[in-house]
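Reviewers asked in the last cycle whether our approach scales beyond single polypeptides. To address this, we selected a multi-component target totalling 800 residues and predicted its structure end to end. The input consisted of the following lines:
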Amino acid sequence: MICAFSFGLFILEFDKCIIDMFMEGKNMLKITNVSKSYDQKKKAIDGINLEILPGDIYGFIGHNGAGKTTLLKSISGILKFDSGEITIFGKSIEKEGLEAKKLIAYIPDNPDIYDALTGIQYLDFIADAFAVDLEKRRNLINKYASMFEMDQVLNNPISSYSHGMKQKIVIMSALIHSPKVMLLDEPFVGLDPKASFLLKEVFHELVDNGALIFFSTHVLEVAEKLCNKVAIIKNGKIVANGRTEEIIKDQSLENLFIELLNEHDVL
Amino acid sequence: MSMMYFKLMKVFFKENLSFKRILGTDLKSSKTKAIFIIFAIIYGFGSILFTIGLMFFDLGKVLTEAGMGDLLLNFIFIYATGLSIMFVLFRANGYIFHYKDYDILEPLPIKGKTVILAKMTVMMSFIYLTIFTVSAPIAFSYFYHGGFDVVKLLMMILLLLFIPFIPLVLFSFVSLLIANFSTRFRFGKALNIILMFVFFLGIMFLSFSMNFSNGNPIEGQLGFIEGATKYLITSKWFTLAVDDLNILAALGVIGLSVAFLTGFVYLIQNLVKNTNQRSVVTRTTNKKKVTSKQRSILMNIISKETKKFFGVTIYVFNNGFGVIMMALAGIAVVIFKDNLSAFLGEFVALGIDIEVVLLLLLGFLISMVFTSAISLSLEGKNFWVLKSLPIKASTVMFGKMLFNVLLTLPVAIFAIFMSGYALGLNVFNVLIMMVFIGSLCFLSSGLGSIINLHFPKFNFVSETEVVKQSIGAFLGMLSSWLILTINGFIYYYLANSFSFFVLVLLLSLLNILLFAGVFYYIKSRSEVIFSKL
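The resulting structure, written as structure tokens, was:
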């Protein structure tokens, strides 16, 4: 009985390996040897390799100017990178930009959005860009508007919103097309504690439905508690990467981070 | 004056006057771009100086011969004052009463008046640049015809430094009032825009006579300048100080200006603190039910452009001027039908078709609408939204281009229709005029899009920098003039070989052909250019 069960598990695992081999990154966000320099002298990101799978909440940690935003912008197609390849569920962000972007939601560190539009007009604009049908968008807008307590202000111009409210409307716009890849740059900055809690809940809901989340943060506690995997970037290079518990072992993420920075004199 | 003033000035100048800030592009990054921009600037300044110079050279000769050469000094005074007023009206609120770096500067141990003075100095530098540019050709005419005197020149330069002080003080408050008005009332912005148009159209009406038969439109301003000077004591002092080297009059101009400015700086310190502390509050009493709408992405872009256009006063004012003038022309042509027929009759007598004059006039007004040359720049910090969405770059550019066409073409067609009706033009000629203007609208809008793709200016503090000062705005207008000039030359050389209808049809086809090239360029190159921005 036990032998049969073990054999069954082996076959299952074997199948998974075979499928993964054939898929060649078609079921993940795959970053291969990506480099980018702004001045052709110093590389902002240097030979980055990462594989982020559906179900991952991947934390991206680094000092100021380490290259976090550059990598996130490169993945989302905002920034052209010099070399390497980024594929999103098998679609190259360079060669099949539109198809790849349909799977992504990107939230920048600063919610600079169209002040002249109202909240609902902005959400409709984003929903139209992703061709979300009317019924689905209404349901999602209602759901997230009440969750983030934005339902009373959606008809107001964005120019009247506070920083936190703008952040919330950007988060809502990111969720409106049920993305498979969610990229966030410092998503918890500017959010009140309740909204931060809700965003974490949304993260779990998304990964439960097969999405993957890749976000940068300076709040190491959040990364430690929320992320199943982390990557630490320093001077444009990944210096640690993998399962959170395997990376930090018996110390805190904060200690590890400081230790890694000291090793290369960043501090 | 404290050292801090100079330190602040250094920072503000770097922030406001670097090539990258003004032009939106780093000259070091591309030699071709740098040469092109420098050429465009020289051409722009050159054509302004040449046009104003030519008109004033003519006028200066007539006035000097009549013993009224000093009237040129009144022109300099009124132009310097008028340009200062215009600049202050648009910029004083942002420079003094609601400056964006208030949160950075206020916690620093710097005296309030030092900050105000430094801010005003930066604003004044733009005013000086403008008034010295415009005054130079008038001064040239004054000294050429009246005899050069270095002391007079130095006196003129010295006093021109003080002339903007009084308008600055008085109209800063008007600028603040306008800004407060437009943010506190729901329809304040719309009313603000209307008032601005009424104000400037009023100035135009007052200052330009429509006496085209004289050939020099500046002569039409003589009455206005003489009238205005009667009531402005400082204008009389300025003329006396420069023309007669009257030291007392010079001291009068300097003393009064300095008194105004000093009083202003001391008195407004608290006001500046209060206005900057109060953030702009937008009324948010919209209790309508939230409803979603589904549209094509092209319609979304056009709708977004429309909201942006009407949301920025300087944008409407600058790019809507040509549209308003076309609309007014369409109405005026019916009301002043008889006067206009008589006026246009003079062109017919010279062998120029009325239709050609109308097309040139409309073409010129169309060139004043160049939203497609700046709207990509106006995305500014929001550009990440478009870049991260699954929208083709060419769709974005076509949306922006179509907005420019939609803003211009219907009003232009209205103006042609009304002109055709009022002046009894041939129906076929009216129809071909409509086709030509349509082709011109599409071509100039498309060229604007290409210009903005190559000369974007995303880094700005105020939209005014993009709308009025960017290289995109300048080239946008220039390219439309260029198209109009080429069309004009072709018409001139072939007028004897073809009828008006056939020739304008051919020109329309040429424009459509050129537009096809522009369309293909935008379609094929936008994505590549977007990815580099």
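Residues 25-277 of chain B form one domain. We regard this as preliminary and will revisit it once experimental data from Aim 1 are available.
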